[in-house]
């Protein structure tokens, strides 16, 4: 016997939970299917545990450098088993409250546990449950760590951003493969917790999608924290010698560590869903969707990492809500290509819109201008002994097209700038907003003031002379 619904959501991670909460407010019958645990990557293997680890690492770093605040520095006694115990406690608290399946059941959602496989445009088979029928289906199955085909890596064994949270304590030494956001956040955290940490990056710099000059400043900070960043590395093989894992590269170079952490991108979770059998097109980045997040099968939508557009928790939730709107309020939402992001190092590195190079490539160098505010001129940053950083705004003919911040809490600072970019504002427009003092965001107001003064200078001939 089939169960009939207006909507079936497959996957209860970040996207699926937002979709379920939104759908529960509509006059429709909704089911959600989860093969593992509600909360998905963000709660169990992504945002929550990594940020909890970073918080512990920052506390240790602050203790070592307490002299910056007029206090006596001390070397912290670090037991990483307690650090990982704290992380699991935070996860448990969230799983018992905000990410609890019962919360969705109480909201009227039928939550089914089991592996799902689409058997038709309007049917999905759930292991241990049976067939579910639906007017629409939303796929939110996320992604998983990609593993590069390095000879000997599988045999030697390694950790990923998923399996690292299963260990009881941190390794003594660590080689990290990859220089993307996950790798860099984890590397700084482990180094600050006393783990000898080496990062091997294939390219000429880490964080290749971010503003190069800010990445260069962050690179210096990471090295000061003890992270050994090695660039332009072409890894050839991995082996185990005397219980130690050895990573070998071209030119005879090698690095030894107790453990290896692979952070070389992610792959969409498309396997086992029966997608291609029912006509859902799947590309190299994931399920292909149109501007309404609809797949090649009109009753099936996809959001988040599975759709391969932006691999962020915040974009997954945004897309999932947009897909629901398009199902039941047709044409009401478009998938956006403007998604800010943040790498949660210390200091944080936030990004919105174009880099300087991207703006020049699109618009030409003559009409692109970069406005910079160094935190050495920020009263708040100096008061907080955090003056090593910068806010950068990229404009085209005065209009904001990109913004980047290497600051404490940059993920908070970037939103004003992101909103201005999305609304097509000029930098000088932000000068009309009174910024609270003393904050890091005062620097944005100062940049806006500079832009306004420059424009006023060009219009100086309009100033009324004395009567």
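Sequence proposed for the structure above (467 residues):
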């Amino acid at each position: 016997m089939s169960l009939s619904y207006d909507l079936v959501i497959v996957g209860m991670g970040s996207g699926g939970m937002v979709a379920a909460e939104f759908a529960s407010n509509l006059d429709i019958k909704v089911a959600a299917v989860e093969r593992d645990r509600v909360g998905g990557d963000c709660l169990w293997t992504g945002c929550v545990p990594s940020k909890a680890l970073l918080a512990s690492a920052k506390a240790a770093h602050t203790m070592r450098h307490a002299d910056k605040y007029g206090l006596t520095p001390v070397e912290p006694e670090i037991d990483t088993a307690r650090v990982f115990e704290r992380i699991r406690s935070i996860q448990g608290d969230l799983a018992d409250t905000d990410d609890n399946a019962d919360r969705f059941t109480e909201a009227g959602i039928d939550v089914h546990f089991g592996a799902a496989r689409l058997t038709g445009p309007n049917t999905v088979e759930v292991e241990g449950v049976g067939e579910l029928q639906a007017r629409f289906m939303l796929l939110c199955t996320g992604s998983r760590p990609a593993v590069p085909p390095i000879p000997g890596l599988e045999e030697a064994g390694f950790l990923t951003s998923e399996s690292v949270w299963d260990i009881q304590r941190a390794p003594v030494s660590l080689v990290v493969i990859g220089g993307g956001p996950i790798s860099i956040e984890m590397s700084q955290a482990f180094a600050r917790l006393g783990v000898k940490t080496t990062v091997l990056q294939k390219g000429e710099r880490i964080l290749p999608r971010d503003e190069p000059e800010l990445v260069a400043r962050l690179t210096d900070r990471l090295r000061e924290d003890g992270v050994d960043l090695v660039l332009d590395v072409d890894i050839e093989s991995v082996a185990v010698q005397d219980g130690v894992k050895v990573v070998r590269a071209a030119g005879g170079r090698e690095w030894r560590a107790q453990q290896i952490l692979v952070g070389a991108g992610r792959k969409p979770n498309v396997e086992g869903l029966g997608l291609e059998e029912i006509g859902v097109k799947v590309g190299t980045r994931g399920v292909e969707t149109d501007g309404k997040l609809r797949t090649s099968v009109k009753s099936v939508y996809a959001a988040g990492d599975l759709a391969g557009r932006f691999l962020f928790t915040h974009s997954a939730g945004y897309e999932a809500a947009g897909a629901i709107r398009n199902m039941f309020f047709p044409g009401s939402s478009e998938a956006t290509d403007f998604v800010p992001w943040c790498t949660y190092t210390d200091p944080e590195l936030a990004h919105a819109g174009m880099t300087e190079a991207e703006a020049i490539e699109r618009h030409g160098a003559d009409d692109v201008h970069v406005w910079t505010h160094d935190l050495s001129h920020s009263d708040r940053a100096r008061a907080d002994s955090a003056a090593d950083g910068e806010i950068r705004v990229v404009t085209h003919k005065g209009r904001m097209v990109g913004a980047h911040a290497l600051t404490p809490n940059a993920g908070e600072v970037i939103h004003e700038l992101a909103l201005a970019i999305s609304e097509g504002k000029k930098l000088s427009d932000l000068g009309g907003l009174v910024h609270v003092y003393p904050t890091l965001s005062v620097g944005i107001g100062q940049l806006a003031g500079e832009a306004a003064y420059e424009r006023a200078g060009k219009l100086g001939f309009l100033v009324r002379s004395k009567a």
